[in-house]
Amino acid sequence: MDLSEHEKEKIERLRRAMYSRSLSKNLHERERRALGQEISRVGEDFEEPEADNSGIVVAPRVIGFARTGLWWLLGAAVLFFLATVGYFGYFFLLGGGSFGATPGNINISISGPPQIEGGVPTELQLVITNRNKVPLELADLVVSYPEGTRSPTDFATDLQSQRIPLGIIEAGGTRQGTVSAVFAGKEGDHANIKVELEYRIGGSSAIFVASSDYDVVFSSSPLSLTISGNTETVSGQPVEITVLIASNANAPVKDVLFNANFPFGFKLESAAVNESSSNAKPQLSQDSRSAIWKLGDLLPGQNRTVTIRGSLMGEQGEMRVFHFSAGTRKDATATSSAIEATLANSEFPIAISKPFLGLAVSVGGASGSNIVVSPGDNVSVAVDWQNNLPTAITDAVIVAKLSGFPIDGATVHSVDGFYRSNDDVVIWDKTTSKGVLANLSPGARGKVGFSFQMPQGEALKNILNPRLDISINAAGKRVSESGVPQNLQAAATQRISLATALSLTTQGLYYSNPFGSVGPMPPKAGTETTYAIVFTVTNTTSKISGARVTAHMPPYVRWVGIYSPSSERVSFNQNDGTVTWDLGDVAPGVGLNGTTPRQAAIAIGFTPSTSQIGQEPPLMQSITLSGTDESTKAPVSRTVKDVTTNILGDLGFSSANSTVVK
């Protein structure tokens, strides 16, 4: 729009004022005013123009919400696009779309019995179908079997896996066949057979795998365990368990192992197998809590019987459980005896109950496992009994049997019992006890007993570690709650160990002195006479360890300093005058049946005093032999009389020369 001449003139005046040095100082900022109503000052030549709002558009609120939704929709579309690109990129570059034959298009069908018998050959039908559009090259079928599977043609051969080459399976082609194996497992157990197809595709060296699984349940085991024995026992009483291991297989079961785990408190005494062999002896664990037997091969229908005997300790009311298992291992020549494939297992519980008739045995008033008596001792045995039942016991019988070394029956005596010499038993019943044992009321108690004499040491010289066992057995009858008569039994045992007949003798020598004697005989006051003191030790039935002879020399006796033989350890303590002979171990039978006894001789000098004239002074005092009986673990001690100048037994010596002369 063209400006008027008047407007152009005003603009020109303003321009000159801005660039003029004299007028520019008059131009300055307008002074600020306080907020308030604005008063427009409009010159006469000006008009207030209206604001131009033609470029301003005010959007409705609905349009703002729509714009936000469009942004979210755009973001979701971008994410979907990226995910799609990633998925197809992986599928065609690395995943199943990168090759022409995918495992998902290969079908492996396995059919067979849902339940199989252990030890019996089982067939599985396999069908492989290639639904890919390309052939499968160098295809191999790999069948992996569970632990313990055997070959159907040779049951001794362990069959872990089987590889079957199939060659090329064309597109849409099918291969089918059967595999056979003998499976091993316990009844009710599950087993898994894994079938894998390994293959290649044309133009690639990679090996691809398609797989399938097949689960079966065992309806029976190739081995079975049948256990028999008492399900109730008394603490400390003998327990016998018989286990029958039988083969149910149609082929030989190779290298059968039988394992027994014993409960706490069980002590194994013996174990026997019906078919003895070198491998039938059990191998015990270090803590004796388990044992394993190598039973060898079991033919179809064949069996082995293992009989286990021992004793079970426990509290009344406790239940103890025996665990038994049978199976095989991969390698019969392996050093390990552990069962690797368990084919059968079973449990056998035994309850510990209180004996109907409590029995307690004592010897000489003492009881326990370490009762020791000496040869020739008179031994008294007492049997205390008590009815532990809430009902009466009738016709009770108590029997004591002696076993071990022979006892002279003439020395056995019992006031209320009868000794039967033909089998060495003492019997108490209602006839010998004057009717006491005819009827025992609840809680009734009493005592029976007998006595006998131990043999002398000479009669036991050929018996090593002699022991005497006393077995007490009781029987009786009661009427049960249902009114049915029941026979009851109880038992107790006691072992008596016989100490070895260790003996010590001493002898003084003058005329037979191996060192040679000097001085008068009889001994003379104030003059020294030399003697030899000889110690002799013999032993009968048990080894003595730590044997030692000690003796004391009076102050008027001198240690000469020589002894014989030099191989023995003899020493003298000058301070207290003690002579010590350390024998160490003394073997059983020393000095018996013509063998040489242990002997040591020492030389001494005796100078009597005038106060001893007419006397037989001791030359060696306090003579003691001590040691430990290895059979009974009991200390043994023997003391002999002092050796005096009366040395009877020395050849040429007369008792007239035994006293000191002036």
UniProtKB/TrEMBL annotation:
Keywords from the UniProt entry: Membrane, Transmembrane, Transmembrane helix
Top-rank taxon, per record: Bacteria
Transmembrane regions: 70-93
Protein name: DUF11 domain-containing protein
Origin species: Candidatus Kaiserbacteria bacterium RIFCSPHIGHO2_02_FULL_55_20
